[in-house]
Amino acid sequence: MKDESAGLIIGISIGVVIGVLLAISGFFCFRYHRKRSQIGNSSSRRAATIPIRANGIDSCSILSDSTIGPDSPVKSGRNGSSFWLDGFRKSNVISASGIPEYSYKDLQKATYNFTTLIGQGAFGPVYKAQMSTGEIVAVKVLATDSKQGEKEFQTEVMLLGRLHHRNLVNLIGFCAEKGQHMLIYVYMSKGSLASHLYNEDREPLSWDLRVHIALDVARGMEYLHDGAVPSVIHRDIKSNNILLDQSMRARVADFGLSREEMVNSHAANVRGTFGYLDPEYISTRTFTKKSDVYSFGVLLFELIAGRTPQQGLMEYVELAAMNTEGKVGWEEIVDSRLDGKFDVEGLNEMAALGYKCINRIPKKRPSMRDIVQILSRILKLRHDKRHHKSLSAMTDEVTIDVDGPETNSHVPDHRREESVESTIDYEV
C-alpha cells in the first residue's frame, strides 16, 4: 500500500509539473505573438510621426542649401540600404503624408536623364524637370552616400504632407526607388534670396521688395509656430532657404532639420547653419520657437545690410547698435547697393525689430505673430507715404484758369504712368 501511495504521489507531482510547464510555455508563446503584433503597430505609428528634414535647396537658383541637414527604423537588404524604404514608401508616406509618389522612370524622362542641373545643395543635386502634364518642377536628388539625407528625406515628406501655406514651399511628390530618394517641388523661377542679395550679376532688390520678402517669410514662420498643429520649429532659417517665385513672393523651404514642438526639443548635436544659430540653443542644446526668431532676426539684418553672417554681419550690427538711440541711427549699415534709395523711418523700425529678435535672452524676443504685425505696419506706413506723395504731385500739376468758365486739371501722361507703376511695384 505504501508503494502504491508513493507511486500515486509521484504521478500526481509529475502531472502537476508537466501542467505548469505547459502553462508557462503557452504564456510565453502568447506574449511572443502579442509582442510581434505590437512592434509592427508601433513601428508604423513611429514612422508616421517621426520628424523629418530635407536638406538644402540649390545654392544657385532653385531650392536652398543647408549646411547640415530627420529618423527611421533600419533593416538590412541586399545592398545594405535602409529597410524603411518599402514600408515607409508604400504605407507610411502615402497614407500619412498624402504626397504622390513618382517612379524613377518618370523623373528620368522629365529631367532628360538627369542632365538639366540647376543647382547643388548639401542634400544633393537639383534638376529642372518638365512633367508629362507640362508642369515645370524642381527635382532634388539625395546623394546616394548621404545617411543624414535619408532622415531629412523622410522628415520633409512627412511634414510637408500636412503643412500648407502660401509662404511655404510646395512639395508635390517624391520618389523612393532603385536606391534613389528624390523630392519634387514647385519650381521657384527666381531662385533663392541669397542669390539676389549676393550675386553681382543680378539687379539689387529694392527696399520695398526687401520688406515684402521679410513679411512673406514672417507669415510662413507664423503659420509654422501658431497655425500648424502641432507647432513646427524650422531650425534652419537663412537666405539660402528662402525661395522666390515669378512674382518675387517669398516661400520658406528646406524642412530637413525641422521638428514638431511636441517632439523632444533637446538635441544631442547642434544642427543648423553657422551664423544663424541661437546662442542659447548652442549652449543648452535645446531649441524652441525663439530659436527660429533669432535666425529670423539675422535674416532681417541680411536684408538690410546685404551681408552674410560669415562676413561678420552680427559684429557689424553690434557695432552699429552702440551708436543708435532706440529706433534711429541704423542708416550706417544699409546695403550700399541700394544707393541711398530706402525709407529711413521704415529702415530704423525694421532694424530695431531685428535687434529685438537677436536678444541674448529668448524670453525678450518677440513672437512671430508680433513680428508679422510690426512688418505689416511698416509696409502700410510706407504705402501711405507714397500715396500722399502721389496726391501732392498731382496737386502741384493742377492749373486753374481763373478767366475761363471751368477749371481744367491736367496730369501729364508720364506722371500718371509713374503713379500706376509705383502701385504695381508695391503689390508685387
UniProtKB/TrEMBL annotation:
Pfam families: PK_Tyr_Ser-Thr
Location of the Protein kinase domain: 112-379
Keywords per UniProt: ATP-binding, Kinase, Membrane, Nucleotide-binding, Serine/threonine-protein kinase, Transferase, Transmembrane, Transmembrane helix
Keyword check for Membrane: yes
Signal peptide: none
Residues that span the membrane, as ranges: 6-30
CDD domains: STKc_IRAK
Coiled-coil zones: none
Single GO molecular function: ATP binding
Highest taxon in the source lineage: Eukaryota
InterPro entries: Kinase-like_dom_sf, Prot_kinase_dom, Ser-Thr/Tyr_kinase_cat_dom, Ser/Thr_kinase_AS
Location of the region described as Disordered in the Swiss-Prot/TrEMBL record: 402-428
Protein name according to UniProt: Protein kinase domain-containing protein
